Every structure is written in C-alpha cells, then in structure tokens.
Amino acid sequence: MSVLKRSLTCAVCIALCVVLPMVFHAIPNGGVLFSPMHLPVLLCGIVAGWCSGVICGIAGPLLSFLFTGMPGLPMLPQMMTELGCYGFFAGLMMVFLHKRRCGVIISLLVAMIAGRIVAGLARAFIFTPGAMTLPIWITSYFVSCLPAIIMQLVLIPLIYAALEKTGFTEKEQG
Amino acid sequence: MELKLEHAAFTQDDFTISDISLTLHGGISLLTGKSGAGKTTLLLMLSSLVVLKEGTLSLDGRILTSHDSHIGIIFQYPERQLFASTVLLDTSYALRARGIGRREAEERAKEALKEVAIDESKWNESPFALSGGERRRVAIAGTLISDPDVLLMDEPTVGIDGYGYERFLDILEKLKRRGKTVLIATHDENLEEYAERVIVMDGGRIVRDSKSRSWLSFLASRLSTSCDIEAVAEAAVEKVRGLR
Amino acid sequence: MNMLGFYQRGDSVLHCISPSSLVTSYFILLIAVVMLSSSLPGIVLSILLIIILYSYGGIALLPAVRALWRFRAFMITIFLMNAFFQPAAEPLFSWWIITLSSDGMMIGLRMIATIVLVTLLSSLLTAVATPLKITDGLRALLHPFSYLHLRTDEIALIISIAITMIPVLAREGRYIMLSSRSRGFAVHGNKIKERVLSFVPLVLPLFLSAFRKADDLTSAMEARGYRGEYGRKRKKVHYAKADVLSIILSILVFAGAAALGGVY
Lengths: 174, 244, 264
Description:
The complex is a heterotrimer.
Chain A: H1 3-26, H2 38-48, H3 50-68, H4 76-97, H5 103-127, H6 134-143, H7 146-166
Chain B: E1 2-12, E2 15-25, E3 27-32, H1 39-47, E4 54-59, E5 62-63, E6 71-74, H2 87-91, H3 93-97, H4 102-115, H5 132-144, E7 150-154, H6 162-177, E8 181-185, E9 197-202, E10 205-211, H7 213-225, H8 229-243
Chain C: H1 13-16, H2 19-36, H3 40-57, H4 61-67, H5 72-85, E1 93-95, E2 98-100, H6 102-128, H7 131-142, H8 152-182, H9 192-197, H10 200-223, H11 241-263
Antiparallel strand pairs in C: 1-2
Helix pairs in contact in C: 2-6, 2-7, 2-11, 3-6, 5-6, 7-8, 8-10
C-alpha cells in the first residue's frame, strides 16, 4: 500500500471516529456500550499499518471532541492513549501475521490486551494516580467493555474480508 | 394505492421544503429539476422514513406516523447498501428482518433475483465480487423483494452501463404491468417514454405537474390525424392498458 | 467546518488571531492554568483569566459552564476518590482502607477546578476557531518536529482531509441508515452476539464507503501528480499586532503562574 493510500485510509478512519458514534447514538438501543470509536482505529491499524493506527487513535478522539464534545475533556487524554495503543499494536501484529488465516483475529486480541495494559498503566501513573487498582482495571477495561469487545471481534474480520473481496487490501503489508 | 403528501414541510442539510403537496395514485411518474431543487428531499418526505416538520403523509387515507413497508425506496447508488456474505442473503434481508423464515425468504429472493436478471450461478457469491451493474440490480432486488405498492427511486440509472440500463427498463415494465405506483427522481429524459406524469421541481417547490411529453405527443399525434374524438379516446385507453 | 455549533462566528480579537498564534497561546495558557490550579489564589486568578478571555472573544460563559453539568458524575467520583482514599497524617475518619481527610478533599476540589478550567479554555478555543483553523495551527506547532524527520505535514494533511470527510461520511451514514430502515433494520436480540450482528447492515456499508472514498481520492491525487507534502509551497502567514500580543501575554501569564507556584 502506498504512503498516500495509507494516509488517506487513516484520514477516513479518523472521520469515522467522529461519525460512527453519532450514527450509533441515532439508533434506538444503539447505545454507548459498543464503544464505536474503537472500530475504525483497530481497522486502521490492521489495514494501513501501525503508524496510521497510532495517528488515527490519537487524532480520532481529539477530532470527535472538537466536533461533538465527546469524549469529554477529562476522558480525552486517556482515550487518546488507549486508542493510540490499539492502533499501534494492531498494526504491529499485522506486520507478522498478515499472511496467516487468523491473522486479523490474533492481531485484534493482542491489540486489545496490550492496549489495555498500557492504558491501565497510563491511568495509574499519569492521568488518575492513586485511583487505579487491578480490580478497577479488570472491571472498566474488560467486564463493562464486553459488548464492545464482542463487536470488535465479530465486525472487524467481516469488514476486512469484505475489503479483501473488493480488492482494497493488498497481499503485501508493512 | 394512493400516497398523499399534504402541506408538508421538512428540513435537511440546511435545505427546507415547506408547504408542499403531492398525490401519487398509480402509474409511473418522473420527478425532475436541476440539482439542488429538492428531489431527494421530497422522496424522503414521501418515504415515511422521516418525521415531517409540518403536514401529513397518508397511504390510502391512513395517516403514517412511522415507516410503512408498503412504501419502498431505492436511494442513489443503492449498491452501497450491500453487506451480506452472499447475494442471496443480502437480497433476503428485508424479509428476514421482518420475521419471515429463512427458507421462505430465500425462495422469494431467488424470484426477485431472476426478475432483475442475476444469473443463478452468482446467487451464492459475495455481492462485492460482482460487477457494478450486477451489484446495482442485486440492491434493487433487495428492495423489490418486499413487493412495495409504492416505489420511490432516486437517480436509478446514473452510472450504469447499457446492459444494466436495458435490464432496468425491463424492471420498470414489470412494475408498470403490476400496477405499482412508481416515482423516479431523474435527469434521464429517455425515461419519459415510460412515464405518464412529469413533476418538475425548482427551489423546493413543484413548478409543473403534467402529463409526460410522450403521453401528450401521443394524444397530439392522434388528434392531428383524426377528428374522431371517440377513436382518439379508444386509442388512449389502449395506450393506458399497454402502459399497465 | 463545525457540525454541532461549537464554533461561533464573530469578529472579536480572538477570532482574528492567526491559527498558529491562537493554538500556541492556547497551549501556553493551558499549562499556566494547570499550574495555577494547585493553589486557591491561583484558581481565583484562573477564573478571572477565563472571564477576561471569554469577554474578549465575545463568547457567552454561562452556556459553557452549564455544559460542564454532564461531567458531574465524573467529577463527583474524582472528589470522593481523593477525599476517602488519600493517605493523611490527621484524618477526620479512618476505617480499613478508607481515610477521610480535609487534605484529601482539598486535593479532590483542586482536581475538579483543573478539569473545569481546562474544559472552559478548550471550549473557548473551539468557539473562536473552526476545526480547519485549529488544524492549521497544529501544523504550525508541529513544524519544528519535522527537523526530527517526523512527517508533520503529512499528519496535518491527514487531519485536514479527515475534517473534510466528516460531513461526507455523516451524510453517507444517514442514507445507509435510512436505506437499512426501509428494509426493516432494527437492533434486536437478547444475546450480545445477536445484537452485534444486527449492526452489520449499517456498519459494513459505511466502512466500505469510507474506504472506497480513500481509494478514489488516492487515484485522483496520484493522477494529478501528487508526490507528498515535502517541498510544497505554503501560503505566507502575515502576523499582526494581535498575534504578537497574544503570544506575549500568554508567556507573561505563564511566567506569573510559575512565580505563584514558587510562592505557594
């Protein structure tokens, strides 16, 4: 994938970080449980690489805040860190796994776990020092996020498969 | 089936249509006008998918307050709505979403796909692997499968090739024969041959609502060759039967 | 462009400042406000600063303060966490891991003050500058990093295009939603996986549409000879007195905050 295509893929994923939450909120029962902003960030990392994933993860919540006010400013730095990690790890794993059949799923799982570890550490030492414990980390990043995790594991492989069918993704990654 | 919009108002993307009334009762009508005239907005108002700011939308006298499945709408570039893993699954979605069993839904999907001339060999393929024209016809089949009595279409012929255009005209003929009410927003003058009515919009208002030129020229040609009004009327009835 | 009305048109001093000066001043003042929030006199000074800035920008302060109400749950949590779990030499009440102390409550209150002041300052930035203007300012701020071989111009291009794409994709999303609804779309199912799968007719077409636009735009730009941001000529920015004044005043506020921090 050319540098320009990666950049523009990153740009549309950032735009989706703003648009998707708006779309989800417009659906009855759509709700915020599904963390819709995570989808384009993870997909950006998987499709366009770790660098684009990081940029998308950082710029997506920032632009969403500027345009829609969500996430709120207190949560913004934490979300930028968390999503930046997701985009980074997802893209990094795809460098090694893009030829494997379950490459997307494995990349997602690694990104979700690694990203949550880094985000938890950032929250514990930088954003809310003294307010983070292991039970709080497990509750806020896994238990309450279970619908979002399932959505990402189900939808992202489907979207990736559709992108392969349309010829958007090339065999060579990196 | 009669679809009636009365003194309705709606705003979309800073564009407002106010105090507009339109009645559709059978046959094929064209909705034309320059870009930005409000054609798509009017189609949305007629679709029962949006909440009107003012006025009412009624179907056979029954006021609609939410989406009615008797009204179908095909937006511009309908192939962009495709999502399923196979053509059959995508086409049958509208029925499965309404609770109809998978087997029955797929049988009806097969019928709908035959009507839009999608070959059987493609039914279990991914819709994304089809050509642009085929994807458009699959998307149209996905709406036609619900057998709506009123069908609204937004620029259905834009960007399709000659073969796809001919297949679309076949679909139009079939809809005419079944007595469906069809409103097509279009810039395509060739479609006037298939329509009985032309509605022209400008600046969010209907500026002309009349019989189509082909219908008028048909009457004019008959009247110019014959002063026998009864004969002209008989020919007109035959034409209507032919259109239906 | 701004979709939800954060940006408020005007011709105040703040509206006329160049993007780079505005964003630079914002970040300097942001750091100053955070530093001032560590003491009560500093908080009072920060509030005065915010009031002055809002009046110079011609922006009403009360609606911005009211908008903070939706963060009340978060702020209450912050206060309680600090009031009940901060270690203290002379607690007011202590049991097991719970330690209620006046020091803890003051820390909680200071953290809330920081959140409020930072949010009000950021709201002012988005009220006097369009997202595109903010992006131009960010581009200027990031420019020094380009000497570290970071592709800051590419990043600014990405953000500019993202901002342009937002209303396009929002419109597309709306039509996909209407199209799906006309075919009977609804979120249903008791199990999470069922509910997730019912989103597919909405989410998949939207993503495919977005990626298609990226593909088309790539082809269009390459066909026009685009070779990257490096070496492209930029429009010269002319700095006025207001720009220089805003930077100087921001630095003075920062210096004052640092000095006050030293005193307290």
